[in-house]
Design brief:
Layout lengths: L1 E5 L6 H10 L4 E6 L11 H17 L4 E3 L3 H15 L5 E2 L5 H5 L5 E5 L1 H5 L1 H10 L5 E5 L3 H7 L2 H14 L6 E4 L8 H7 L5 E3 L2 H12 L12 E5 L2 E3 L9 H7 L20 H6 L1
Parallel strand pairs: 1-2, 1-3, 2-9, 3-4, 5-6, 5-7, 7-8
Antiparallel strand pairs: 9-10
Helix pairs in contact: 1-10, 1-11, 2-3, 7-8
GO molecular function: glutamate racemase activity
Keywords: Isomerase
Pfam families: Asp_Glu_race
């Protein structure tokens, strides 16, 4: 069983990590696009073409499911990908975890890229799932790019700028970009105590396994991890080494749960637990 994950950069790491932890025997095919990144600043046509091309490569290499662990690509081109590959190949997209965050009934902030923040798709999610809960969109220019480079100074600067835009009344923050969970520790330490983070990585991984009818848990393991960079066989970029989940995937090692960042309302991190880890 091979699952392909498609993103321009290392935002696919959290979802790949959850797949690795939930189903260690599944082979992972990671398709990145360093030649075309960042997708967020590109046209819809460009993103769609890159996504479709990566999908073709993935299927040629035996992928039985296509996962798009990228909010921007999902918002922009998931319909085109599904039209091309479903129903034969399941296509799983990623959307901000607004619904579970809003279920608490308190004001929430949604951190995302500028493109996702401005998209009609996110606005529709808020209208459909927030159910009257106050939602504050927070655009985070440069944060995804800083994570992709493993630039800690730029990460701290971008996180601080996002915190300044986040009302203190928001006890929940939705990480609306798949890069952001990689720096959840920095985000948590910058927000008020008892803030809850929500992201979609675990939910997307579990939905992928459901679509494939693969029960979570070890089978015959461990699966392989292969990487394609802009259509060529390659390896994960050096910045992946900055994050525990990236290091584990680079060596095809087992994925400890502690390497995975907070996911869809399942795990709540506090400053104290972060400092203990």
């Amino acid at each position: 069983m091979t699952v392909a994950l498609i993103d321009s950069g290392i935002g696919l790491l959290p979802t790949a990590g959850w797949l690795r932890w939930l189903a260690p025997s599944v082979d992972l095919l990671l398709l990145l696009d360093p030649d075309g990144m960042p997708w967020g600043s590109k046209s819809a046509q460009f993103i769609t073409e890159r996504l479709l091309a990566a999908g073709e490569i993935a299927v040629e290499r035996g992928a039985q499911a296509l996962v798009v662990p990228c909010n921007t690509a999902t918002v922009t081109a998931i319909d085109a990908l599904r039209e091309s590959f479903e129903p034969g190949i399941p296509v799983i997209g990623t959307v901000p975890a607004i619904k579970p965050a809003a279920s608490a009934g308190a004001p929430i902030a949604v951190w995302a890229t500028v493109r996702t923040t401005e998209s009609e798709y996110q606005q529709r999610l808020v209208a459909e799932h927030a159910d009257g809960v106050p939602v504050f969109p927070v655009a985070c220019p440069g944060l995804a790019e800083a994570v992709d480079c493993g630039d800690r100074v730029a990460i701290v600067r971008a996180v601080a700028a996002a915190v300044e835009q986040t009302p203190r009344a928001c006890s929940s923050v939705v990480l609306g970009c798949t890069h952001y969970p990689l720096v959840a520790d920095q985000i948590m330490l910058s927000l008020p105590d008892a803030t809850t983070l929500y992201d979609s990585a675990e939910a997307v991984a579990r939905q992928t396994l459901r679509r494939l009818d693969v029960p979570p848990g070890p089978s015959q393991g461990p699966g392989r991890v292969n990487v394609v960079v802009s259509g060529r066989a390659g390896v994960l970029p050096p910045a992946a080494q900055c994050f525990p989940v990236g290091r584990a995937l680079m060596t095809a090692a087992a994925m400890p749960l502690e390497f995975l960042t907070p996911a869809t309302s399942v795990r709540r991190l506090t400053r104290e637990t972060l400092l203990q880890e």
